[in-house]
């Protein structure tokens, strides 16, 4: 399968030209969005990885990391690529990230968005998403709808998988990492109530069946070999890990978050903040036995040292729930000592007043 050369801007009078113009407009809005991560180093890193995969198409690609805790990436026909931070939190190495970006570049190279636009069966829905919905919804919902506009057919997804693996291999990455992305995501989505991934994520609803996809990717990648880039990826993401986990907790999908925490802790058992987040997910889920398990996690994090200040606030809540007033008071004090300018400092001070001296 030969790859196309660089695309030239289509005539505005054509359907493709109209699609590019629409994407240009949305890219302008995205560029101004407060959800775009402005960190220069991260953006350069992601752009460099995309270029390594895309080869001669590199000058036509712009990569925007978007701060939203869900797993997703998309690429528009005009070269605009979104990479959501929920994806960055979940992939384990550079090769896995390359698998996802390579897949999206595969859609771009095969011009699947244009095929979808020209498909009479999907034209109405596509136009509704792009022409109507983007004008009147919140920004995150808008980003989701924009990404959802590329809900390709399963045949398109299979073709992008094949091309993505080829790009990975040519860029020097181990293609066997691709299947692991989907296996990990499936394990996460299967946790908790309503555990059928196909019903919980548009990715699994529109992509080939997970088992089929994982098996196909493993067969295609059977001649493995190449780099995983695990250490480099961990180094690049480490400065963002805490705030990405804070975003993850705000999803309030605690069963899924716990699966993610277990995976992260297997790779980085020394991190006290990951123990805090696992404990916090348990505390917030508040199921039978969760408070005790949360307390164990918080105490292990304390033993590691370098615990985040928020751990002391969470400990205060656990002790308050157990009616251990002295321990709750001590934990809330430690929280305020460590984070006197915290947004909830007044609330915690109120608790301290209620608890007395």
Automatic annotation (TrEMBL):
TPR repeats lie at residues 309-342. Residues 42-218 form the Peptidase M48 domain. Its cofactor is Zn(2+). It comes from the Bacteria. Keywords: Hydrolase, Metal-binding, Metalloprotease, Protease, TPR repeat, Zinc. It is an enzyme of class 3 (hydrolase). Its EC number is 3.4.24.-. Binds 1 zinc ion per subunit. GO terms for molecular function: metallopeptidase activity. Pfam families: Peptidase_M48. This is M48 family metalloprotease. Belongs to the peptidase M48 family. InterPro entries: Mito/Outer_Membr_Metalloprot, Peptidase_M48, TPR-like_helical_dom_sf, TPR_rpt. SUPFAM superfamilies: TPR-like (SSF48452). It comes from Caldimonas aquatica.
């Amino acid at each position: 399968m030969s790859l196309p050369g660089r695309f030239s801007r289509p005539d505005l009078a054509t359907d493709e030209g109209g699609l590019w113009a629409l994407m240009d407009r949305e890219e302008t809005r995205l560029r101004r969005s407060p959800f775009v991560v402005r960190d220069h180093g991260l953006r350069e890193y992601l752009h460099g990885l995309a270029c390594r995969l895309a080869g001669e198409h590199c000058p036509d690609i712009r990569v925007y990391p978007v701060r939203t805790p869900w797993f997703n990436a998309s690429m528009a026909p005009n070269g605009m690529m979104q990479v959501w931070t929920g994806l960055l939190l979940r992939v384990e190495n550079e090769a896995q990230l390359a698998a996802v970006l390579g897949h999206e570049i595969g859609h771009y190279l095969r011009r699947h968005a244009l095929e979808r636009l020209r498909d009479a069966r999907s034209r109405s829905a596509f136009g509704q998403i792009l022409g109507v919905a983007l004008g009147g919804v919140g920004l995150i919902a808008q980003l989701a709808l924009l990404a959802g506009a590329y809900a390709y057919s399963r045949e398109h997804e299979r073709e992008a998988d094949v091309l993505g693996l080829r790009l990975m291999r040519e860029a020097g990455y181990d293609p066997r990492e691709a299947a692991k992305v989907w296996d990990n995501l499936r394990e996460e989505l299967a946790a908790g109530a309503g555990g059928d991934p196909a019903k919980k994520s548009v990715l699994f609803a529109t992509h080939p069946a997970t088992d089929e996809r994982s098996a196909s990717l493993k067969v295609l990648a059977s001649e493995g070999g190449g780099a995983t880039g695990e250490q480099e990826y961990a180094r690049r993401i480490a400065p963002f890990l805490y705030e990405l986990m804070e975003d993850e907790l705000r999803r309030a999908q605690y069963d899924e978050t716990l699966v993610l925490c277990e995976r992260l802790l297997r790779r980085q058992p020394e991190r006290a903040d990951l123990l805090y987040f696992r404990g916090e997910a348990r505390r917030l889920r508040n199921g039978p036995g969760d408070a005790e398990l949360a307390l164990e996690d918080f105490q292990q994090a304390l033993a590691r040292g370098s615990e985040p200040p928020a751990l002391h606030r969470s400990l205060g809540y656990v002790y308050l729930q157990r009616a251990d007033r002295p321990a709750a008071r001590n934990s809330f004090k430690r929280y305020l000592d460590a984070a006197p300018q915290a947004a909830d400092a007044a609330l915690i001070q109120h608790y301290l007043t209620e608890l007395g001296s």
